[in-house]
Known about the structure:
Blueprint: E1 6-8, E2 24-28, E3 33-39, E4 44-49, E5 54-58, E6 64-69, E7 74-79, E8 85-89, E9 94-98, E10 104-108, E11 110-111, E12 114-115, E13 122-124, E14 130-133, H1 137-140, E15 155-160, E16 167-174, E17 177-182, E18 188-193, E19 205-212, E20 216-225, E21 234-236, E22 242-245, E23 249-253, E24 259-264, E25 271-275, E26 281-286, E27 289-294
This protein binds magnesium ion.
Amino acid sequence: MAEQVHEIIDARFRDLIVGSAKLERLYSGCRWAEGPVWFKDGDFLLWSDIPNHRMMRYQPDGTVSVFRANSNFSNGNTRDRQGRLVSCEHGTRRVTRAEYDGTITVLADRFEGKSLNSPNDVVVHSNGSVWFTDPTYGIMTDYEGFKAEPEQTTRNVYRLDPETGELTAVVTDFLQPNGLVFSPDETKLYVADSGSSHTAGAPRQIRVFDVVDGKTLTNSREFCRLVDGVPDGLRADVHGNIWTSGGPAVHCYAPDGTLLGRIHIPEGVSNLTFGGPRGNRLFVTATTSVYSIYLATNGAQTP
Ligand code: MG
C-alpha cells in the first residue's frame, strides 16, 4: 500500500486538497530538479536539471524533452507579465530573459561592479520589477555550477528596476536567501532562508516583508519555521496560502503562519509550482524526479 500522501494538520487543509487525488510521478532521471514554471498558453511545464546543465519540458500527454541544452546550470525560473521566461543561472552567475525571438537578454550579472554569487530564484512584480535571491550554492562546488570564491560579502535579495535597469539590494542580512514569492495582492514578499543546509542550528525560516510602492521592503519578520527540512521554493495560492518545500514534503502555511498540512513526496523536494489549464495542479521538483497532484485550490501566479 502506498503511504498516505496528504497529512492534515489543521482542518483548513481539507478545503485545499482533493482527498482522492493521487501523487503522480511524471519523470525521473534528473540529478537535481529545480525551478518549475508552467506555461498556460503552451500547456507545458519547464524545469531545470541543474547538474545536468539542461532545462526540461513536460507536456500533459506525457512527453518529456530537453527544452534547453547548455542551460548554464539554470536554477529558478519564472515568467514576466509578458510571458517571457526569466531564469537564474549558476554557471554564468546571472539572471536572463528569453525574448520572443529566442534571444537571451542579460538582466543582471553584477552588483557594485562585482559578480553576483549565483542567482537562485526569481519573481516578477506586476510593475515589471524583477526580484531575485543570490545565495552561494552555485559556486560552492563544481556540481551545480563552477566553484569560485564569492565576490559579494553578503547574500542578498535584489530588485531590478524595469525602467532604469538599476539593481538594488533590498535585503542584505540573509544567511542564504532562496525561494521567494509575493502575496497575491503583492503587499507582502515571502523569502525562504535555506542557510540551515550548511550551517548547523540556523533557523529553517521563511521571512515576510511588507512591500512599499512595489519598490522597497519594510517590517522584516519571521513568517514560519519549518518542522523539518530546508525551505527552498515558494508559491502562493489564490487564498494567500504559502506552499513550500522542506525535506520529502510540500508544506502549506496559512497567511497567518499556521502549518495547515503537508503532501508527502518520495524524494527530497526542492521547489513547486501551480499549473494545468486551471492552475489547480501542483508540480513538484524533487531530487531526481518531477511529481504532480491535483488540489482544491488554484495558484495565484500569472500569467
Ligand atoms: Mg531554490
